[in-house]
Amino acid sequence: MSDHGGPRLSTINIGAPVPGELARFYATLLGGEVTTDDAQWATVRLPGGATGLAFQLEQHYVPPVWPAGRGEQQMQVHLEIQVDDLERAAAWALQCGARLADYQPQDDVRVCLDPAGHPFCLWIAT
Questions:
Q1: What is the pLDDT at residue 5?
Q2: Nearest alpha-carbon partner for 37 in 11, 25, 19, 49
Q3: Total domains, the chain
Q4: Residue 30 lies in domain
């Protein structure tokens, strides 16, 4: 095995209009802990050593459109969140402040939008 310096994914960084608000949303949704929260930057530590989340201020933030049409702001990344019970997990996401997307392309996935409009998918293994 070659030594490539040990690269490993530690954090996923997401642009946000209010980093702390989005950090608190995902910490609540995923059972994590907000570890940094200031006007420019917020971080969330997730249970079990999962890859962390960070939220960086984007002063001219434009939320993505799901699904995007020609000329509309496209999402650059979205989170895939595996769940045990799709309906209960979707209800929890809504209670935390998410919105259910109008377009739902699959029966075994629920596309939600976080408070800043980023799509994320709740999915159940079939």
A1: 78
A2: 19
A3: 1
A4: 11-59+72-123
